[in-house]
Amino acid sequence: MNVRLRIDNREVEVPEGATLLEAARALGIAIPTLCHAEGLPPSTSCMVCVVKVKGRDALVPSCAVRAEDGMEVESETEEVAAARKAAVELLLSDHVGDCVAPCHALCPARMEIPRMLRQIAAGAYADAIATVKRDIALPATLGRICPAPCEKGCRRAARDAAVSICLLKRFVADVDLESSAPYRPACAPPSGKKVAIAGAGPAGLAAAYHLLQAGHACTLFDALGEPGGMLRRKIEPGRLPPAVLDAEIARVTELGAQFVPGTRAGADVPLAELRGRFDAVLIAAGELPAEAFEALGLPFGPRGILADKKTFATPESGVFAAGGVLRPLRMAVRAVADGKEAARSIDRFLTGRYSMAHDERFSTHIGKLREGEIDAFMTGASPAPRVVPAGDGMTPEEAAADAARCLRCDCRKQHDCALRHLADACGARAHRYKIERRAFAQLRRPGVIYEPGKCILCGICIAIAEEAREPLGLTFVGRGFNVRVGVPLNAGLAEALTKVADRCVRACPTAALAYDAD
Length: 518
Ligand code: SF4
Ligand code: SF4
Ligand code: SF4
Ligand code: FES
What we know:
Layout: E1 2-7, E2 10-15, H1 20-26, E3 50-53, E4 60-61, E5 72-74, H2 78-92, H3 102-106, H4 113-121, H5 125-135, H6 139-145, H7 149-152, H8 165-178, E6 194-198, H9 202-213, E7 217-221, H10 230-233, H11 242-253, E8 258-260, H12 271-277, E9 280-283, H13 290-296, E10 319-321, H14 332-351, H15 373-378, H16 396-403, H17 418-426, E11 443-445, E12 448-450, H18 460-467, E13 475-477, E14 484-486, H19 493-496, H20 501-507, E15 513-515
Parallel strand pairs: 1-5, 6-7, 6-9, 7-8, 9-10
Antiparallel strand pairs: 1-2, 3-4, 3-5, 11-12, 12-15, 13-14
The protein binds iron/sulfur cluster (3 copies) and FE2/S2 (inorganic) cluster.
């Protein structure tokens, strides 16, 4: 027998016994879930699937409540959205994890440092340079001059000294530049759009590198006769050999960038002309005197051009600004990071997907470690001290040794964690509720790692192990706020999950259960 009900004013008919979640899905209405798993009994522990049923005071979990004839259900009200967000924030209140590693969070260009380190440790240099160049256009250059803000937050320093992140980036970039076929990113087919970039310094070059990959033609205008900007003018050749800079710039121009020397936007070519000839203009000319800003005709303040901090858009439609023209910069990496972000913003503008929203992803952070927690992080990392290179730059052996010191602070499911996706989607804040976090711990079984601090107590793994008749399986242990998933009789994870470890890892909505190698 079927029942008929309405969800969000749309009628649906489902078999008797179906849940509201199933009825919503039959209509194509997406309701988030965390503790629900197909074929397993509902545990109703997360409450992110709540909906409003007309006539009932409290919201109900759609994964557990059965559809009834004549029901009227709402899944998208403000009350529902607020309740879902609060449920996610409660789950995060005592969560112990770093979605992205501290070093990654501190890198202005948001380079995925731990991934690069694992690839270098494994000798996978082609993969490592691809990881680096996804975010950093000029790594061999920055590897010589960057003050390495990422290393200031490296967790390994709590035991002895930070991993040599900057030197390792330089190592892999040098290996690539010296190879017979240096890394060349794939470029989208030509979009037919043209971008003028005023300034061929770190911000302009980085912007061109990313815009060219998106298929947009780029013309770089610069006052000087050669591209490089402050990298060529302000850094002594002893620190940054011109040959390295030239080789790295060639990796940008080979993607198709045109260079127009001896031409200053504003003074030599009016902004209005550039706007007429190109689909978008990026001003990336570094720190400029007030007269130069006046010549451009863009609004400016004491520090530089006034532009949106997140989109880099100036008040003039289609005109963007990045790098030192916005404010004095102490680090070239910030200019490179600006260039990348401005390129993304310009790409959105050109393709009609322009959004003023900044799309940094949700991230939760452990923060300061408690006494003894560094020991758990050291499991799996090389105990050797920081490598002091014998020469200028690292040898492959030195690079492998230092990369192996990384504690692997980034989350193993940072790209596919359901809790993180949902936190992003509902705009949750990680520390809305001030509850003392759990202790950091890791349990391992060959290939699988269990981090109780990331467990949201959904019970899915316990149910899977029970259904598969694992001899020991998993169970909830402890009381009150100290409940966690454990193995009966204090046995290890390997004895608990002899048959269904894979299924549990795949079904776990967070990285509480994850593959060690991910
Ligand atoms: S389990 Fe999810 S929310 Fe927690 S640290 Fe990992 S990615 Fe972030
Ligand atoms: S130990 Fe590794 S992952 Fe952790 S902060 Fe340092 S470099 Fe980053
Ligand atoms: S470890 Fe088990 S109970 Fe904890 S979040 Fe993962 S599947 Fe759920
Ligand atoms: S309570 Fe329904 S998915 Fe968790």
